[in-house]
Amino acid sequence: MHTLDGKVALVTGGGRGIGAAVVRRLARDGAEVAFTFQDDERRADAVVDEVTTAGGRATAVRADSADPGAPVDAVERVVAAHGRIDILVNNAGAFLLGPLAELSLAEFEQTVAVNVRAPFLASQAAARHMSAGGRIVTIGSNMAERTVFPGFALYAMSKTALIGLTKALGRELGPRAITVNLVNPGPTDTDLNPADGPNAAVINGFTALGHYAAPDDIAATVAFLAGPDARYITGATVNVDGGFTA
């Protein structure tokens, strides 16, 4: 079912992993999807080719989410090309780990720039152009609710900030019939955290279901929140973590 026919979406960090799965799913559901990528043009082109071969529409835009001008520029480019933006998925993220005593100021600033500032600026820019029925979905992390390993202080802090941003924007944009929600994935099979990695068995043990998610599992939740059936859900955090935070 093409529940997103006629919609225009922007997915940040859509060249790989969860972001690429979201791009494919939104396009499959009928949206015209633009997505940002930072460096790997070959991989981004492969996502575009995959979507196009399946009958969808996608375009790739090079952008570095650590640059404060990049999120706004990406939104404006989408609006200039398509005349509108209906769906924003804030997915790009920085994943910098380490003991508290060893984390540098540069790592702090990089993490906050990508994980907090970029979603704020992109949401601000997109909201200026969205009409009733607009959707903002941000990808957070289950580490915002349960941090079971050392070395996650910086990452967990940045992802926790998204809970407050989601609630506040949901309240502010609600009168305009624009919904804002947060998806917190748990262990997901990506390049950064493969399901067959050296720590996978331990990580699986923290979930109720005993296994990693596939990126498509996260994308399915994003697609639901971006679609018409989620029109009465806003300011919410949805954990897609196999029971990790249960």
UniProtKB/TrEMBL annotation:
Pfam families: adh_short_C2. Keywords: Oxidoreductase. The keyword Nucleus does not apply. It comes from the Bacteria. One of its GO terms (molecular function) is oxidoreductase activity. Belongs to the short-chain dehydrogenases/reductases (SDR) family. This is 3-ketoacyl-ACP reductase. It comes from Virgisporangium aliadipatigenens. The lineage of its organism: Bacteria, Bacillati, Actinomycetota, Actinomycetes, Micromonosporales.
